Structure formats: structure tokens, C-alpha cells
């Protein structure tokens, strides 16, 4: 479909603690630059967290990310040479790029539907799930209290290859990135695990979110240092790497 980007990329950088002030300055200056990079139809710079609590204490100041939807793969190929890409590379000591094809997307991000209405399709290898929400300030504390059991269950979920939190701001702009060995593992956790099902059931009644988005992607490639993503190194992950 015409509104579905052919390629979405997730760029993740690991930086030393001494570079944190420079990263914060880039987070202030670069969102507009990213949006105006040739070929970018949607782009967000993101802080990250461990994904264990999604509260203020979860932030990881040594890892930063950018999620970008592109007009074409040719445009995406120029990111590393763009002003934003070069600037982050100067302070990073490790990085990874995940190349993604949208499979499903529901909801909005900053009033937009950045991944359109993907038609789905069969996938035999790894998939990435993205959740993003803007919390209602009065409901944030309740949300943070509800998350630890879900995060603990996610950590132990079969087929999980990587996971971390993402956010556009330290408070109230929450999200998760998780990579799974295959779609069946993701579905098993999302719809069959009791802790996650309970959280889903509470969402309409609690009114946690002012805006939310959930999307799934086929992982087409992972380039660079997978440890930046928190990629696990067990046998299941080694098997899945052959598909990515």
C-alpha cells in the first residue's frame, strides 16, 4: 500500500558516560534535522531504558536510538553519511542498525500513522514489536506500578532475543522494543501470558494512555554490534541469527 514505508530502520548507539552531555545536546538539536533529512517520511530520536520498570529510574544514558521510516531503501542507505548519522557516530563506541518491514500497525504517534496500514504477510524469521504510548500525567504512577510483573515475565519469555525501553522524554513518553525468534513466540507472550493479558485488560478501564501505537515488523537484517540491542547469546538466538 502506498502509505506503508518499504523500509523502516532502527539505529542504536552505545556511548561512553563522558559523552552523555553531547548526547543530550543532540537530542535537543537533531529532531528537526532528522525530519528534514532527504527521504525521511517520519523520524524520532529516542532515549532508552532497561525495560524493567519504564519509570524515571529506568533510563540508560549510555544508549540512544533513532527510528526512521523512509521513502525508499536508497534514501535509507544515505543515513550514515547524513549530518545526524555522522554526528552520533562521532560519540558512539558501538552501534547497530535494524532493517525492518512493517507487518501491522495500530494507533498513532504524534497524531500520525507513520507505518500506514500494512497488509501483513507470512514471516518465518525474527520479528520486532514496537509499543509506544503517551501517558496521562494523572495515571502515570498507576501505570509504573503495574509494569514490573509484565517486565519480569517478558524477560523470561521463550523466544525473546532482545528488549529495551524507548522514550522521547524522561517522563510520560513510554515505549518498548522487543525482538522475537519468530511470530509465534511474540503471539504466545502477547496473548497467552497471564501477566500481559491482565495488563491489556486493565488498559481501557485505567485510561493510562492519551495516545498509543503498536506495530510489528519483519526483521530483514541486523548490521553492527548486536550487543547494543541487548541481544541474547543463547542457542535459540544463534539459530534465529541465521534468519536475520
UniProtKB/TrEMBL annotation:
Domain of life per record: Bacteria
One annotated GO molecular function: monooxygenase activity
Alphabetized InterPro entries for the sequence: CrtA-like
Keywords (A to Z) from UniProt: Monooxygenase, Oxidoreductase
Protein name per Swiss-Prot or TrEMBL: Monooxygenase
Species: Micromonospora mangrovi
Amino acid at each position: 500500500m502506498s502509505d506503508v514505508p518499504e523500509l523502516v530502520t532502527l539505529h542504536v548507539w552505545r556511548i561512553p558516560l563522558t559523552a552523555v552531555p553531547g548526547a543530550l545536546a543532540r537530542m535537543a538539536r537533531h529532531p528537526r534535522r532528522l525530519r528534514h533529512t532527504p527521504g525521511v517520511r517520519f523520524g524520532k530520536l529516542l532515549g532508552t531504558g532497561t525495560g524493567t520498570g519504564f519509570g524515571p529510574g529506568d533510563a540508560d544514558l549510555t544508549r540512544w536510538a533513532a527510528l526512521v521510516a523512509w521513502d525508499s531503501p536508497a534514501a535509507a542507505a544515505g543515513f550514515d553519511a547524513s549530518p545526524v548519522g555522522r554526528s552520533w557516530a562521532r560519540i558512539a563506541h558501538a552501534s547497530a542498525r535494524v532493517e525492518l518491514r512493517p507487518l501491522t500497525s495500530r494507533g498513532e504517534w504524534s497524531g500520525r500513522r507513520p507505518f500506514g496500514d500494512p497488509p501483513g504477510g507470512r514471516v518465518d524469521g525474527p520479528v520486532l514489536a514496537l509499543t509506544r504510548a503517551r501517558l496521562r500525567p494523572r495515571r502515570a504512577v498507576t501505570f509504573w506500578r503495574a509494569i514490573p510483573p509484565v517486565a519480569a515475565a517478558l524477560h523470561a519469555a521463550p523466544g525473546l532475543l532482545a528488549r529495551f525501553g524507548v522514550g522521547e522524554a524522561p517522563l510520560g513518553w513510554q515505549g518498548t522494543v522487543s525482538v522475537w525468534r519468530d511470530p509465534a513466540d511474540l503471539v504466545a507472550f502477547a496473548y497467552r501470558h497471564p501477566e500481559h493479558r491482565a495488563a491489556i485488560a486493565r488498559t481501557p478501564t485505567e485510561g493510562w494512555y492519551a495516545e498509543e501505537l503498536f506495530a510489528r515488523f519483519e526483521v530483514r537484517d541486523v548490521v553492527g554490534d548486536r550487543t547494543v540491542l541487548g541481544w541474547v547469546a543463547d542457542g535459540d538466538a544463534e539459530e534465529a541469527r541465521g534468519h536475520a
